[in-house]
Structure formats: structure tokens, C-alpha cells
From TrEMBL:
It is a single-pass type IV membrane protein. It comes from Theobroma cacao (Cacao). InterPro entries: Longin-like_dom_sf, Longin_dom, Synaptobrevin-like, Synaptobrevin-like_transport, V_SNARE_CC. Belongs to the synaptobrevin family. Keywords: Coiled coil, Membrane, Protein transport, Signal, Transmembrane, Transmembrane helix, Transport, Vacuole. Residues 7-111 form the Longin domain. The chain crosses the membrane at residues 190-214. It comes from the Eukaryota. Involved in the targeting and/or fusion of transport vesicles to their target membrane. Residues 1-16 form the signal peptide. SUPFAM superfamilies: SNARE fusion complex (SSF58038), SNARE-like (SSF64356). GO terms for biological process: protein transport; vesicle-mediated transport. The keyword Membrane applies. This is Vesicle-associated membrane protein 713.
């Protein structure tokens, strides 16, 4: 999975988050929220090991995700823009007074669904390519996380690969189950069609037999 973790926050107050792997990304994300300089809108990325924390802050609302470096910048920032729009559209001005994790029960599911979509669906990148690369993303420089965190404050990022493998296994089983259901319905439809065809044949045969029996009586 390309995007492994995501959160939505107002300043340093986390309103919703979701992780697709066993990782301490949440602790590092909170450090980033506290250390991001200024209050202006910003798009910034910080690298740590083979993972990158992408941050988008607009109108006081921060959306952050951690992605594998192979995901590049376009997909993570398109994901962040999508999440920002969904969050504002869903909660409006309530985001400015919500308590910590006030939207987590509901919006964590949205984060999960969109993380899976942008990580695994090829249409996610295809649509964005058609729209063209966002100008602000093109100018985002990926800095080492030491730029924002004091070296003594830095937490080593831990990601459990087993969790990723389990997630991939779950998606494979889900796809296999969907394929089996499709094949089952196709067989059911074929069986019904054959039964209908057989009934038509039987009806035609019986019609001819009955016609052959009644015809001589008609000639008398």
C-alpha cells in the first residue's frame, strides 16, 4: 500500500486519523504538526528512511499523510486535496471548534477508503494525469525530517511489513471472493438459460406430439 497513514488536524489538534499498518507514524506526525513554521498555507514534504510525510495546510486545516517514497508526490498530494475537500464539505465551520478526535468515528472510514483507492486503483493517477500536475506540488521540495525536528526529538520510524503483507493478503482475498461471486452468478444465469431452453424444447415437442395425435381425429 503506497499511503500508509493519514490524519486531519486543526493546528496540533488531531480531528481524525487512520493507519493501514502497524507503525509509530502517529507520534512523528504530531511532532511535525507542532514544528511546522508559521500559520500560512503550505505544501511541504519531509523524508525519513524510505517514507515521506506529505503535509497540506489550508485555512488553518492540516491534512497529512505518510507514503512510501515510490508513490512520488502527485498521488499523495492529490489524496490530501481530496481529503481536505471532503472534510470541509462534510463538517463546514464545525472543524474550528471540534474536540480532539471529534470526527474520528465517522471520518476514519473515509480516510481508509481513499487511502486504499489512491494506493491501488490505477484510475487515481490516470485522472490526475489528465488534469495535469498541480503547480504547487511541482514546486514542493522534499526535505529531510531533521529540518523540522531537533535531532534529539526525532523518533525512529517503525513500520511493520507484516501488517502491509496482511493488508495485501486481505485485498487479494477480497478480489478472489468477488471473482468467485461473479463466476457463480454467471453459472447461475447459464443454468437458468439452459433450463428455459430445455422447457421450450419440451414444450415444442409436446406441441408436435399433441398436434400429431389430434390431427387424425380432425380428418374424420
Amino acid at each position: 500500500m503506497a499511503i500508509l497513514y493519514a490524519l486531519v488536524a486543526r493546528g496540533s489538534v488531531v480531528l481524525a486519523e487512520f493507519t493501514a499498518a502497524t507503525t509509530n507514524a502517529s507520534a512523528i506526525a504530531r511532532q511535525i504538526l507542532e514544528k511546522i513554521p508559521g500559520n500560512n498555507d503550505t505544501h511541504v514534504s519531509y523524508s525519513q528512511d524510505r517514507y515521506i510525510f506529505h503535509v497540506k495546510r489550508t485555512d488553518g486545516l492540516t491534512v497529512l499523510c505518510m507514503a512510501d517514497e515510490s508513490a512520488g508526490r502527485r498521488i499523495p498530494f492529490t489524496f490530501l486535496e481530496d481529503i481536505h475537500q471532503r472534510f470541509v464539505r462534510t463538517y463546514g465551520r464545525a472543524v474550528f471548534s471540534a474536540l480532539p478526535y471529534g470526527m474520528n468515528d465517522e471520518f476514519a472510514r473515509v480516510l481508509s477508503q481513499q487511502m486504499e483507492y489512491y494506493s491501488s486503483d490505477p484510475n487515481a493517477d490516470r485522472i490526475n494525469r489528465l488534469k495535469g500536475e498541480m503547480g504547487q506540488v511541482r514546486n514542493v521540495m522534499i526535505e529531510n525530517i531533521d529540518k523540522v525536528l531537533e535531532r534529539g526529538d526525532r523518533i525512529e520510524l517503525l513500520v511493520d511489513k507484516t501488517a502491509n503483507m496482511q493488508g495485501n493478503t486481505f485485498r487479494f482475498r477480497k478480489q478472489a471472493r468477488r471473482f468467485r461471486n461473479t463466476v457463480w452468478w454467471r453459472n447461475v444465469k447459464l443454468t437458468v438459460a439452459l433450463i428455459i431452453l430445455l422447457l421450450i424444447i419440451v414444450y415444442v415437442v409436446l406441441a408436435f406430439v399433441c398436434h400429431g395425435i389430434t390431427l387424425p381425429s380432425c380428418l374424420k
